[in-house]
Amino acid sequence: MNAPLPSDALSRLKALLGPGGWSDDPSVLAPHLSEWRGRWAGTTPLMVLPRTVEEVSAVVSICAETGTPITPQGGNTGLVGGQTPQGEVLLSTGRLRAVRDVDAADDAMVVEAGVTLLEAQQAAEAKGRLFPLSLAAEGTATIGGNISTNAGGVAVLRYGMMRDLVLGLEAVLPNGEILRGLKRLRKDNTGYDLKHLLIGAEGTLGVITAASLKLFPLMRSRATAVVAVEDPGRAVELLMRAKAETGGGVDAFEIMNRVGTGMVLRNIPGTRDPFPGQDHPWTVLIELASGEPGAAGAAMERLLAQALEAGLVLDAAVAQNEQQKRDFWRVREDQSAGQKVEGAGWKHDISAPVSQVPAMLAEATAAVERFHPGVRVAAFGHLGDGNIHYDVIMPAGADAKAFSARREEGSRIVHDIVARHEGSISAEHGLGRAKTAEALRYKSPVEVEAMRAIRKALDPGRIMNPGVLF
Ligand SMILES: Cc1cc2nc3c(=O)[nH]c(=O)nc-3n(C[C@H](O)[C@H](O)[C@H](O)COP(=O)(O)OP(=O)(O)OC[C@H]3O[C@@H](n4cnc5c(N)ncnc54)[C@H](O)[C@@H]3O)c2cc1C
Predict the structure, then answer these.
(1) Are 384 and 157 in contact (CB under 8 A)?
(2) 215 Cα–ligand 1 center, Å
(3) Residues 456-466: what's their mean pLDDT?
(4) What local confidence, expressed as pLDDT, does residue 38 receive?
(5) 157-169 pLDDT, tens digit each
(6) Which position has the higher pLDDT, 305 or 247?
(7) Which of 26, 81, 238, 469 has the fewest CB atoms within 10 Å distance of its CB?
(8) In angstroms, what is the span from residue 22 Cα to ligand 1's centroid?
């Protein structure tokens, strides 16, 4: 997508939004054109920053009329390149920043697309409510981006993905029309539920401008522990016990292998090993929460005592204070940052039914080690959801460029194993520019054709994020 855009469209957009509403200054654009992993570099002739849904509608109308393509962008924390324009107009939600309403009685809040996830959590908490979506990039990632990628994170086990947390949407469709759907209803069976088309659409079916989100009660007790286990199979057994012991009170169940944890401890200053000098092969971070004061701590004690007695765990440490809890979480949240320093990697965001994860991991590791001897597999993530970030890091001291050149072939090996376990090659990050072609190998033609038909019906000119999805 590199053909020059119609210049009259660009001048109409500038006139519409006025000073402060657009930029073509390279120094302003620069941070919007590179991304966290440094894998995608973008170009754009113009960034627009509409302030209201009406302005977004006017922008999209001009683009639809002139055949001008658009890439929406929120916090620019996406990991598959979907927010990085390749010549399109960049539509930033950076000025759609209002928390419109937080209603404790309806257990709902309405926030605009450019509000960060952290700000949304804080707005809910200020009214005594919980907005449970949580992920390491929450200080920058936006609600619009979370919805467009159907984000997951560390509390999916209990509360579900972003799709499960959206009650209604306000969005601008690719023809410029406004879909006003900010309902707060739990029940509404009145035909196709259009919000679900936009959730996870990665900016291809319109621009989300605001959302009505589900809120939950704040928990009254929480307990966090790190547990060492021999292998992922034992971690799955521990998960089953944790669910049974708490009656659904497991907020997070995150697994990490020693390779990845070693990289964090080596490369990220200030991180602490929960089991110094032990080198346990796998650790699991467990967080239990309860509406009853003290109940989470008591449940954790019972769980760990049982698990130790059954020989399921090698070692366990329960956080005694907030600082220790933060230290435990930091080792988990800095897994990707820890790897960065070690050189190039083939990254995978894979999932399978929880019971199949141990076999899937064992097969994938044996296969990539055969394919490229010396690779270092850093596997971590949301075992409770069957979702593992399975990163194959180049051998120490290898040539990064040569290793990256083998990514496609190496990833194909991993993805074929995932498919044999009835899994997904993109569990929570989406397809973006990075994985769309690969996904075509695993999706059925019926699914792909239905998706293409929906897109064509809503966006016949394919102006919305044209390089993303099918
Ligand atoms: C350190 C780190 C940890 C992460 N951890 C997780 C995790 O645990 N779970 C997880 O799911 N993800 C995770 N991510 C990925 C990322 O944070 C999520 O995908 C997030 O939802 C993206 O939000 P964003 O606002 O940054 O979106 P962007 O990166 O700006 O955009 C992402 C996609 O959404 C589209 N988009 C953005 N806003 C809109 C809008 N208003 N309307 C229409 N389309 C829009 C873009 O075009 C693009 O396709 C992580 C990322 C980092 C860097």
Answers:
(1) yes
(2) 21
(3) 98
(4) 84
(5) 999 999 999 999 9
(6) 305
(7) 26
(8) 22
Is 27 exposed, middle or buried, given 0-12, 13-18 or 19+ CB atoms closer than 10 A? Answer: exposed
Could you name the CATH architecture of 99-217? Answer: 2-Layer Sandwich (3.30)
Fold annotation for 221-337? Alpha-Beta Plaits (3.30.70)
- At 41-58, the pLDDT tens digits run 999 999 999 999 999 999
- Where are the domains positioned within the chain? 99-217, 221-337, 342-429
Atom of ligand 1 nearest to the CA of 36: 53
Question: Both tokens of residue 132?
Answer: 């449970």
Token pair of 181 as six digits: 């759907």
* 78 CA to centre of ligand 1 in angstroms: 4
Q: Is the separation of the CB atoms in 294 and 341 below 8 Å?
A: no
Let me know the angle formed at the C-alpha of 86 by 81 and 92, rounded to the nearest 5 degrees. 70
What is the pLDDT, as a whole number, of residue 3?
65
Atom of ligand 1 nearest to the CA of 73: 30
The burial class, CB within 10 Å (0-12 / 13-18 / 19+), for 387 is buried
Phi, psi of 247, rounded to the nearest 5 degrees: 60, 45
| Domains 221-337 and 342-429 fall in the same CATH topology | yes
Q: Is 428 in the pocket of ligand 1 (CB under 6 A)?
A: yes
Ligand 1 mean position to 144 CA, how many Å? 8
Centroid of ligand 1 to alpha carbon of 147 (angstroms)? 8
Hey, which of 149, 330, 389, 435 would you mutate to test ligand 1's pocket, going by the most ligand atoms within 8 Å of its Cβ?
Answer: 149
- Ligand 1 close to Cβ of residue 198 (< 6 A): no
